[in-house]
Amino acid sequence: MIWRYLARRAFLLVFVMFALTGFVFSLNFMFPTEAMLTAGVLPANTSANVLSQYITYCQQLLLGHWGTSLATQQPILGEVLALLPATIELAAAALLFSLFAGIPLGLLAAVRKDRWLDRLISGAALIGFSMPVFWWALLLIMVFSLHLGWLPTSGRLSVLYDVPHQTGFLVLDILRSELADKTAALSNAFIHLLMPMLVLACYPTTVMVRFVRGSMLNVLEKNYIKTARAKGLSRGQVLWHHGMRNALLPVTRQIGLQFSSLLTLAMLTEVIFSWPGIGQWLIDSIYQRNYPAIQAGVLVLSTLVILVNILTEILHTVFDPLARKL
Amino acid sequence: MKSVQISISSLLLLCLNGCQPSIEQARPEGLVYCAEGAPETFNPQLVTSGTTIDAISQHLYDRLLDIDPTDGKLLPGLALSWSVSADGLTYRFVLRTDVHFHQTSYFTPSRLLSPADVEFTFNRMLDHQHPYYRASVEYPYFDSVGWQDLVKHVKAVSADTIEFQLNQPDSSFLSVLATDFAAILSAEYGEQLIKAGQPNLLDSQPIGTGPFIFANYSKNQLIRYRQNQQYWQQQVHLPQLVIDIVPDNTKRLAKLLTQECDIAPLPRLAELKMLAQRPGFVVTEQTSMNVGYWAFNTQKPPFNQIKVRQALALAVDKQHMLQAVYFNQAEIAHSVLPPNSWAYESQLPTTSFDLVKAKQLLSEAGYPNGFQMDIWAMPVQRTYNPNAQKMAELLQADLAKIGVKAKIVSFEWNAFRRKLRDGEHDSVLIGWSADNADPDNFFRPLLSCAAAISGGNRANWCNESFDQLIGSALLTTEQQQRRSYYLAAQQFLQQEMPLVPIAHSKKFQVQNIQVQNISINPYGGINFASTTKSPRSPISGANR
Amino acid sequence: MKKLRLYYEEYNRRPYQLLWRHFVTQQFALFGLLSLLSLLLIAIFSPLFTPHDPYLQNSALLNQVPSWQNGGQVAYPFGTDDLGRDLLSRLMLGCSYTFGTALLAVFGSLAAGLLLGGLAGMSKGVKSSIFNHLLDLALTIPSLLFAIVIVAVLGPGLQNTLWAVMLALLPQFVHAVRHEIQHQLKQDYVIAYRLDGANNLQILWSVILPGLWEPLTLLFTMALSTAILDIAAIGFLGLGAQAPTPEWGTMIADALDAIYLAPWTVALPGLLIFITVLSINLVGDGLRVAMKKRREI
Known about the structure:
- The complex is a heterotrimer.
- By secondary structure, chain A is mainly α.
- Chain A is built from 12 helices and no strands.
- In chain B, strands 14-18-13-17-15-16 form a 6-stranded mixed β-sheet, with helices on one face. In chain B, strands 1-10-9-8 form a 4-stranded mixed β-sheet, sandwiched between helices.
- In chain B, helix 16 runs antiparallel to helix 18 (464-475).
- By secondary structure, chain C is mainly alpha-helical.
- Chain C starts with 14 loop residues before the first helix and ends with a helix.
- Chains in contact: A-B, A-C, B-C.
């Protein structure tokens, strides 16, 4: 049964990927053609019909020939692979923070509904939810970097550390490098990560708080909670065994749905903090009218979102028996 | 329970108090210079851009001659002494014999500097059969001074002497050799690359004799240099020099304030006062010979008509620009030569701001209702123009009053310069910083016919009589005579108006107070050979 | 005075009155609604009421501090920017641009979403399934990314931003409308209508549409806040309204250059974006709570 489910998911994935590559391929015709020809993305004989062009394009994608960037004349796939780990690091850090901070706060707010703690947490969540991310980032920079001098304003690591690029994930690269003092480098990397992570995590954390609060409130009204209390379980037991587990079930799916907004905000955060990731690269490509790079960036980011969506759907189906409709 | 709470909270408070992470914990030693742009290449022969020169030239390379920063006189560099023949056609240089080339992971020198290296460096540009010769537009500075027509040959005449033979006398020849563009390359490295079949690496994995050795370059991110412990001139104190590329001015300043950068060039003029008041930072003002100007593409109508150019020149409100763009940290320019050049003449007539006369001239030229044009504004800050966009907006407003509708155009800096070279512009706000103390440096690279071909002449203006005037100035070494030629040239320029000189700006640099001994160099790239950095202390916020 | 009741009748308020009563009792939601209405008024009437010309450059008054600091003038309540333009006037005009464009985008998206969602919701079978999956795909592309790509294709500018945000919000509306319609189609009263002989269009118009307003209103508020944040973000990146248009995001990006000298030129537009989005979210939250209470009673 599980194989049938996975097979359905895989089939859907293939279908969605075709649609995505079709959309990205259609960008070829919307971007100026000379730019795409010089970058080697469009095949030389544009006289062939659209379908065979599309098939050639897909073949090129799978082979790794994503064209050359107009700005640097380097192969795009190489650039993308070098920058992607940085974005993944940032997004993962923000996501983890939103889980570890958002879920407890949301549960706390739901349990203490309409008391001052709930008002405080919900109010703060609403404020955080309404704040434009770039303004929030500027405020944090003004306070923590320029005024107090605690945190740096940009980059992943102080430039004085010579850490050659190997995997792209900074922690691994530092450990594999030949630096004398690795702990200092790691702590330096951490303080560089702190502010971008806090900025990026603002939106998902507040969404998580509001969502978990709503979900918990829904669960607390259900009949089985009343039954459990009537049976004599203490408040804590009810909350832990029945309340929390059921309230947290939809969280995995929510993460998947929120991931695309997370990536959007990651792009803005990378631009403000000069974080060397895909988002900043993509925005720079737009300024430079680097069309093949834009195309590749859209493809990569959308694929990432699709994969995360599928992953969280599978996880959700694993955790929630009611969602398993085969 | 309560005691546990108290102890936990006090522990937290202690931790927060004790660990105030300041950014500079146990960082490796070195200097960080925040540059405003990425270098195009690592060979100064191939560029004229100040950004590239600042990032590479004085760090990696040396020249035959150097310039004294205080009086502009020529000093020995790699050449210990030199002599000129009586007819001014033969120059001989006696070279130092104790200069080591860099040793890196990709090259180990087997010999010291010799005349063969000087031959290699300059024959690359002269000899069409040379394996490193490329199309002539690749040497913009040397092409604009007519190097290939000037130099007959470069030859080693003994183990330590090199001879340059010229076709005609040129009084700026020695000054050209002292510019940052005349960096001496390694012939041995060149041969090694030819054998390996990778000649392009000469310009991207450089070898020189300078105070720093190339370690690595992350494109558009940073350049890392290591100390050259065998530097011939002096001891280099910095173990590492990192050029961090930060194009955005606000971010550059932010990095300076948080001590992620030690030095930031081109600070925003409006913020200088604020910076000077901050403890821990020093604002240095440097003498600079530069000019910011507005050039018309004289190949495109209507800019091929003198009256149109003169009319547009009368619509430039230089006083207003001085206030709004330069914040009064500059002086109005009436000629391309700045006042601190020895050929400057204060008797030149000054330009005025006269919209009525401008409109009159326009109607005389056949455009009573004005026309449409582009103003190309640089996206980056330069010493000669800190905010071209703002200047373009001011110009746009003034031009509208005489009926000329201007559109402001800009691109990313490298793309911008490329398109300028291809002559796509109507007019452009740009400028020039001097590379040596010779006044010819303001005329030939900017306004000669050779420069029009090589792309440095933004006005695409080629005038035989002008070329003759500045050419005659080079045939003599008599300063008075040269001055009179340059005066005639400047008067001619004021008539023809291929470009409108706007201002000569002061050059500023902000640095952390721990950085000392940066050589102030008005004529070229920044030099860190003798720089030291004292140990750090945590920064204090503005209100502490 | 209470209404005179001669007979013992059950007097029930109409649904909207009930909603309003529940909404009004929440102070924050009411506050949000009031500020939203005032912003709407500013957005519509600002070109008539700005104290100064928002585009007039005054070189004598560069970077004037706001009136509550030393050296400020009441004539320029929020100070001036680095070209001497009055900030209050620019912010008011910016309300028209940012808020107004967002409203237009959301209305357009709503209309198109109703149309497409209605078609999708009423259709069945393979066509419906394919459409659903395409829709899921459209939902996975991040909205800002989608908007940025469209702007990259069409070029920067406020109008293109409008199209981009409209297209980016469309999948959410279509998804919500389709979901709601399919949910409603399973209800008993729809079966009753079918048995009475109504065709698809009549069912859509009389039965389903009235039931759509509730979720659509909530979605409208969420989409509006997303639209404002997206428009401001695109303006901030320099891809939206170009200078000298005083759109709030563009104003922040322009003012970043002078952040050390004139921090209020960065803080105030951001504060206004924040207040606008906060008001919308307060109203949205208030509506959601009010609808829930109305359902319970």
